[in-house]
Amino acid sequence: MTQTSGLQRRLCELLRERSVARGDFTLASGRRSTFYIDARRTTMSGEGLALIGALGLERLNARGWAPALVGGLTLGADPVAFAIAAAAQAQGRPLDAFTVRKQAKTHGTGQRIEGCFTPGAAVVVVEDVITTGHSATDAIAAVTAAGGRVLGVLAVVDREEGGRATLERAGHAVEVLVTATELGVR
User: Fold this and answer.
1) How far apart are CA 179 and CA 186, in angstroms?
2) Signed CA dihedral, 100, 103, 104, 106: sign only
3) Main-chain dihedrals φ then ψ at residue 105, nearest 5 degrees
4) Beta strand 113-115 with 96-100: parallel, antiparallel or unpaired?
5) How many other C-beta atoms can be found within 10 angstroms of the C-beta atom of residue 102?
6) Rounded CA gap, 69 and 150, in Å?
7) Which end of the chain is more exposed for a tag (fewer CB within 10 A), N or C?
8) Number of Cβ within a 10 Å radius of residue 34
9) ω into 75 cis (within 30 of 0)
10) Domain, as residue range, for 78
11) CATH at residue 90
């Protein structure tokens, strides 16, 4: 077994243990579902951060993406971006993170994008869970409006409910670490 498959297997186990719940749920999209994936219970754990950082960085490399920055819509994208940036730093590779607010601040500098973002930078938008693709689309719009160049989208989990296809139809390459099928919920 390769190191990658071992890391991915463990990420699936951790997501099943910590993040998958069954029942009757209303998703952010308004859709009803018999399962919910609260990825933050994994992405904000020490082990989850280590796994996501290593796997995320590996997927960036496999895609040939060499971003200067990773980030996305707060709150779900934040630990994913921070994990990947930290994994890159551990390998001596420069990669910084940013976060996109849902709305621009009404005080201070009034920025919508916080952190290390710079106009003109190559960016990979990250996401914890893709369902409809709306959060990633919102982050892409904010980054593009601020002068960033989006290379693609990387998500921890794809619920396989059309969000990936929506992003790809809009011209954005998508990479996912785990699918709902791999988690056994589809």
Assistant:
1) 9
2) negative
3) -65, 150
4) antiparallel
5) 12
6) 10
7) N
8) 10
9) yes
10) 3-183
11) 3.40.50.2020
